[in-house]
Amino acid sequence: MALKSSKRDEGTVNKKLSNFLLAYRNTPQGTTNETPAKLFEDNNMELYFRLQEGQEYERNRPTVDSFWVALTTCVLGLQPEMYTDESKLLAQPGPCDIDIRDASDLSQKEFLERYAYSEPVVIRGATDNKYFQDLCRKDAMLKKHGSKRIRLSSANTYSYAKSDVTLQKYVDEIMKPQTLEKLGNETFYWFGDNNYTEWDEVLSAYKPPPYKLPGLVGAYSFGMAGAGTGVPFHFHGPGFGEVVFGRKRWFMYPPEQTPVFHPDQTTLQWLHEEFPLLDKSDLPLQCTIHKGELIYFPDRWWHGTLNIDTSVFISTFLGAV
User: Is 206:129 a contact under the CB 8 Å cutoff?
Assistant: First the structure.
């Protein structure tokens, strides 16, 4: 029925495809007498999960990604997992001038000697967190944890303002793409301040980075945020940041090189307004990390972060026992 209906349509191929998908979504199937939208409403389908994977890297096949987004939205009646409309992206990945290492050839000994106390490093293939990723998918999070209250922090250097809302409200009403007009102290962001008892089921499934610093233990900080959000330059103790979904661009300076920035200016504003004016000698180290990748930041290194896409992320902060 859907195919017959689409043959009667006039117009471009895209219009015909859209009409076909919409008709298919709402046409009862012969074997079940149910529409595809109804059949797939509550299913965790691999097809649905694949959408995020198409956005994790450099989007070198936009036509394919666009087709799957249209198929899922029109046929299945579902919102794509952590999908961000590319027309709303105000930031893109940049070059990477931080070492990128594969965990298979980075030993604990070399990590300590070369990176732990001296420079950042991006590490690929360190852990298998597929199960943790499944727990962090948007549909799973909202279904099981949507009514939980989370604590948001203002997305400025000092993150001094706090706001408590439900996860459902945050995702539906607050977690929007960042604009160039909105300041960091006006932007609220879920990262950290986690109630470890309430979130134990999720956080206990996370496999932490395998690298250690003597005398230090890890504490997790978990969150999700919209495209273009991030935290401007700040510093603290050493640790690891991992992207669960999306892409995150990091800008880093060593402790002795204080970046020039306003603490209430967002990283997105800094990137558009200040970054292009920097002398070559004042440029930060930077790299964009993707799903499942880690970045290590040494003690007291300045860093600012920028979520390229709607993203889920977790950090392991290292502190004294």
Answer: yes
